[in-house]
Design brief:
two-stranded antiparallel sheet; 424 residues; Glycosyltransferase; three-stranded antiparallel sheet; binds (2R)-2,3-dihydroxypropanoic acid; mainly alpha; single chain
Length: 424
């Protein structure tokens, strides 16, 4: 059984591999996505280490001069996706989007290095990537935390990766839709519209893209100009984990300046994270930076915080919160609390389970010694695959497959779960 699953997962990775990068799935997402690629590399490394390094190198070959690593690289023309390069209009030779995505690269590179069988290759390739990753992190703190709080804001829901989370609803109300160009969505032609964000959300997504485009994608200006600035604990946890991981890796590789700077970024951010903690919710919450208020929304972003080296006591409470969620649904981890009125078991990030988030939460909990809940998350993740195949995401209630099929990062996570389990 295990071998059959591993073979199936590897087959999906190969099928979506276009040579130097991997598409998340054919049709729905025909380009290279930032965090998809970095997590995909972890799966690829199990059968081809060199190919795994290439996945991340290809992404970083499209890093902007200011340090940003874009969320999509449009390597080649494909009309099957909206918004395409003409909408973004970022003016790059190989077109990219103009926003970023969760900074998993530092974590992924550190893990690839730690596990590498070919240490010489790993040392060379990690050493070359490290300054680029550090430059991306510096960009985050300079451009998405211009007032120096220690935590970065997303300025577009797509940056979080959790596009239509309930977390953004209130802040999104303040994003207007006047002047949004007429457009035709393509996602709803590839996937069930009931599993995708709504039209009203899409209009606001596009409003923000048009606003930033009008500012020439000048990242020194976008944060303060954006009507949407939310500090997401999950997004920050990924960044801070990456800072902490590359600090250790840089020490090992003798890049001491990067080590010192990255550790300082991690320490400052982890300290600031505590202002997002909510004892009544038993998790961290988002901060609406424009209002200066926490968003009272019990979503997975505040549980994903366990991925960062937060205090063990916080992980203990998060594990208890997760155990409570586990009593409400068959499959952990729902992306929103099923008791909340906004919960929707099938609609993208408003309820469904995503294996990549399961992986990161389980990893953090294992590291903190919360192994019982971590094991349940791993077992539920594999249960979903057995029930419904390698989907993009799943109903936490009954495991219904949602979104795209034959999904790359889902397959990568299955290889990870079966081969290593969450690691310390
Ligand atoms: C999409 O198109 O659905 C992505 O999540 C945005 O990058």
């Amino acid at each position: 059984m295990t071998q059959a699953l591993l073979d199936h997962a590897a087959e999906i990775l190969r099928e979506n591999d276009l040579g130097a990068y991997t598409v998340p799935t054919h049709g729905l997402y025909p380009f290279q996505w930032n965090w998809d690629s970095c997590l995909t590399a972890l799966g690829q490394a199990h059968f081809d280490e060199s190919r795994a390094w290439t996945e991340i190198e290809t992404l970083f070959a499209h890093q902007w001069d200011d340090g940003m690593v874009p969320h999509i690289v449009f390597h080649k023309q494909d009309d099957g996706y909206f918004p395409g390069p003409d909408v973004w209009a970022t003016g790059r030779a190989v077109p990219t989007s103009g926003i970023t995505q969760p900074a998993v690269a530092g974590f992924a590179v550190a893990r690839l290095y730690a596990r590498a069988k070919d240490k010489n290759m790993a040392r060379a390739r990690a050493s070359a990537l490290l300054p680029k990753i550090a430059k991306w992190h510096d960009w985050f703190f300079r451009c998405r935390d211009p007032h120096g709080s220690g935590l970065v804001a997303i300025i577009h829901p797509w940056e979080s990766g959790r596009d239509n989370s309930v977390d953004w609803d209130a802040a999104f109300e303040r994003v207007p839709t006047e002047g949004v160009m007429p457009f035709t969505r393509r996602d709803t032609q590839h996937a069930n519209p009931a599993h995708r964000p709504t039209q009203a959300q899409y209009e606001r997504y596009i409003y923000l893209v048009q606003l930033f485009r009008g500012l020439g994608w000048d990242n020194e200006r976008l944060h303060d100009a954006s009507p949407f600035q939310v500090v997401d604990p999950g997004f920050n946890a990924i960044l801070l984990r990456a800072c902490s991981d590359i600090a250790s890796l840089a020490t090992e590789l003798g890049q001491t300046e990067i080590a010192t700077r990255s550790q300082a970024q991690a320490n400052k951010g982890l300290g600031a994270m505590e202002s997002l903690w909510s004892a009544p919710h038993g998790q961290y919450l988002c901060l609406d930076r424009q209002l200066g208020r926490l968003v009272q929304s019990p979503s997975i972003g505040g549980l994903l915080a366990a991925f960062a080296p937060i205090p063990a006591e916080r992980c203990r409470v998060i594990a208890a919160t997760l155990a409570g969620l586990g009593d409400k649904v068959r499959y952990l981890v729902p992306s929103h609390d099923p008791d909340a009125a906004e919960f929707d078991a099938l609609r993208y990030w408003r309820g469904p389970v995503w294996l990549i988030v399961n992986y990161m939460i389980a990893d953090g909990l294992t590291r903190a010694g919360e192994t019982a809940v971590a094991s349940r998350i791993v077992a539920d993740s594999l249960g979903l695959i057995l029930r419904s195949g390698f989907a993009e995401y799943y109903s936490p209630v009954d495991g219904t497959a949602c979104g795209g099929g034959r999904f790359t990062w889902t397959a990568a996570m299955v290889i990870e779960f079966l081969t290593n389990g969450p690691q310390t």
